[in-house]
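Table 4 source record.
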Amino acid sequence: MGAGADPSASNSLDVIVIGAGIAGASVAAELSTHVRVLLLEMESQPGYHTTGRSAAIFAPVYGPQPIRALTRASEAFFLTPPSGFTEHAIFSPRKILMIARPDQEETLDALVEECQAETPVEKLTGSRLAEEHPLIRDGYASSAMLDPNGQDIDVHALHQGYLKQFRERGGTLVTSSTVEGLSKGGDNWTVRAGGQTYRAAKVVNAAGAWAEDIGQMAGAETIRLVPKRRTALMIASPSPQQTDPLPLTVDIDEDFYLKPDAGRLLISPANEDPSPPCDAQPEELDIAYCIDRIERAFDLSVRRIDNKWAGLRSFVGDKCPVAGFSGQVDGFYWLAGQGGYGIQTAPALSRFAAAQVLGNPVPTDILDQGLDPADLAVVRLKDLVS
C-alpha cells in the first residue's frame, strides 16, 4: 500500500481507479494532481498482465485514425517527460517498415495515401527496400511503407514513472486486492476489494481484460470487450551488429512482425485469438505459425526459441478505446479496449480521461491532432453491438 490517507475511510476518496496497468497508473497519476485517488490492483505487482508483456513501439502510422491522433498527441510527453519522472530516456529510435507482397500492394498503397496526410512516410521498392531491410527474403515483398519516426518505448520506465508520480502526489496504491463487489448508493460508489470496503464519488474502470467483468458488476452497459491472445517469441540473431539497427517490420495485413531487441530478435504471428480474461500462455500452434511466417518472409532459420510468452490485448468492435462515462450508471467511467495501442497512447489518453472524469474540457493539444471525443464515447458502441 502506498502513502496517503486511510483509503477505507468513508469520505477520504474522490476517485477509485481499478487496475494498475499502464491505463490505470497513468490516469491515476493525472487525477491525483487534483483529487484524492485510490488505485486498486488484483495482482501482487502492477503491470503483471498486458503492460508487463508489451513489446511497445511508438508508431504514428499504427492503428485506426483515433489511435493515430492519440499517438501524435502523446509524442511530446515521451520526448520530454516531466522532471523527475524517470532517470532513463523513454524513447530510442526505431524505424517502422510495413511490407507487402504483390497481392497486398493495393492495401499498402491505401495506407500510404492515408498516412501521408499525417506523418512523413515513404513507399519503398526494389533495391531501396532491400537496403532498408536486407533480411527480407528475395522475391517475398514487392514494396513497403517506411515510417522514419518510430521509437522503441521503455515500458518499464514509463509505467514506473506514472506510479512514482501517483505516489508523490499523495495517491494510494493497494495491490493483491481483487474487486469482489461494486455498488452505487446515493452520491458514492462502494467497492469491496481484498476484504476491505472503499467509497468514492467516481470509479474508473481500467481493468484491462477484466474490464467487462467490472462493468457488469457495476450494473453498467456491456461494451462487448473481447480479450485476444497474442504470442511472442525471442530468438537468436544471425548477427546482432547487423540486425540491431533494423526497423520493426510488420506485414501490411499484420500477419507477423519482427523487431530487433538487445542483440536478439522478437518475433510474433500477430495473432488475435479470443480468450477469457486469464494469465495468458503461448500455445504450440501459435508458435508454429509464427516460425513458419517469419521463415517465409525473412532469410532466417529458427533453430531455437530463447523465450516465449503471451499476453491479452482487449478490443471492442472498431478497435478504438472506450473512454467515457457509462450511460447507464452515474459516476462510472470506462477506460478500456486499448488493444495493442495502450502504451503509445497512454500520455494523451490519460489526460483525456482525467479531464472528463474531473468535468474539465479535453486539452486542446489533443483535439488539435484530429481526435473527436465521440470516437471514444460509450454511446458509439450501440451501432457496433446491436
